[in-house]
Amino acid sequence: MQKEILIQSLKLALKERGITYKILAEKLKMGHSSVRRIFSTHNMGLDKLEEICHVLNLSFHDLAKMSLEQLVDHPVLNTTQELALAGDPKLFCFFYLITIGRTPAYITDHYDFDGEEKNSYLLKLNKLRLIDLFPNEKVRPLFSSDVKWSPGGPLEKRYKKEGHQEFWSSNFDGKFEALNSLFVKLSPASIEILSKKIQKLVLEIESLSANDKALEKNDQFEDMFFIFSYRPWAFSAITSYRRSVQSTFMN
Predict the structure, then answer these.
(1) What number is the average pLDDT over the span 18-28?
(2) CB neighbours (10 Å) of residue 250?
C-alpha cells in the first residue's frame, strides 16, 4: 500500500477529530514545522505513524482499512495506456523509471536512451496522461510504480509470465536473497493478526525505501523485489489422498 495514501488517511482522521498540526505537535512533543514537514514530504517512519495513530485513538488496522477504501477511487491504467506500454518495451522501461523518481537526465546517462528517444517518450507519456510534463524537463508522474495492472490485460499478457519466470529462476541462496515457505493450520483470528503484521511490514519497507531515496547519491543500491502472498491452499500431492467426510463415516 502506498505510504502517500496512508498519510492522506491520517490527514482525514485529523480533520474529522478537529486536531490541527499545532495540536498534534504538542501531543507528540515536536515542533509545529517538523510535523508539517513529515506530512508534506511523506517522510514518516513506522514508529512515528504509530505514535500519531495512538494520539488519534486509531489502530493501524483501522488506518489500513480507511486507506483501502481510498484505493477504490485510486487511478488505474486504462486500456489505451496499457496497450501503449505493452507495445513498446522501451516506453514501459522509461515510464517505470520516471515513477520511481528518476529524472530524464538520469535515464539518458544510465540507460540506453538517447536524447531524441528521451524527448519522444516524454511527449508520448504526457499525451497518454501518464505524466505531467513541464518546461525544462520537469516531470510529475501521475501513477506510482506499484500501479495495478488490469487482470488479463495487455500488460499482464506481455510481462507477467516473463517476470515470474525471471524472479523464480533463482535458488534464493545468494546475498540479499531469501525464500521461506510454511504450511500451517491457523484460526481466522490468527490469520487476521498476521495480515495486520504484514501490512505494517510493507509500510516499513516503503518507509525505508523513501528514506534511502532521499540519501541516494550514487548507484550503490540494490533493486529489491518482495512478494507477500498467502491464501487457503494445500498441495494436491497431499490432498489427493485425503479421505472425504462421507468415506470416513462409512469406514
Answers:
(1) 90
(2) 8
